[in-house]
Amino acid sequence: MSIPGTAFDGAGKVVLVVEDEAMIRMTLVWELEDAGFVVLEAKDADVAMAIITDRSDIVVVVTDVRMPGSVDGFGLAAWMREHAASVAIVITSGLAELPDIAAINPAIARIVAKPYRSQEVAGWVREVSSRAFTPPN
Question: What's the sign of the alpha-carbon dihedral 10, 126, 19, 22?
Fold first, then answer.
């Protein structure tokens, strides 16, 4: 459990984890919940887009790049630029070459190479969420 006031205090912010590998998704959810975030899950970008469309309280999306479905993580980021521009995004990828972050939105985006330690994710989410718009309750 996180200690309020620490660098990893999620303060109840809502995060959507988009990952097709169930064990990775579950580990990320646990880490983020332990850091104080409220976490939603999606197994692919199609499910994520439906969730983002239905909810106005999501502050950060954490997504993998390679997933089944109509679009990958970069496609989700492009969709978010048009439909959820104020939502921050953390993109994780095992690709050797990652795109320029400026193409996504450098103010509220971060691209992270795999492998990474799941414990680091809460810090990245906290970092980008501090720059994202927080909708009123």
Answer: negative
Cα 135 to Cα 14, 45, 59, 110, 112, distances in angstroms: 11, 22, 8, 21, 26
What letter would DSSP give residue 43?
S
Give the CA count within 13 Å in the CB-facing half-sphere of 128: 26
What confidence tens digit (pLDDT) does each residue in 70-99 have?
999 989 998 998 999 889 999 888 765 666
- Taken in order 112, 113, 118, 120, is the CA torsion positive or negative? negative
E strands within the chain?
14-18, 38-42, 58-64, 88-93, 109-113
What percent of the chain has a predicted confidence (pLDDT) above 70?
77
Q: How many CB atoms lie within 10 A of CB 81?
A: 15
For residue 100, name the pLDDT band (cuts at 50, 70, 90): low
Residue 132's CB: how many other CB atoms inside 10 A?
22
Any residues with CB less than 8 A from the CB of 133 and at least 6 apart, and which? 59, 86, 87
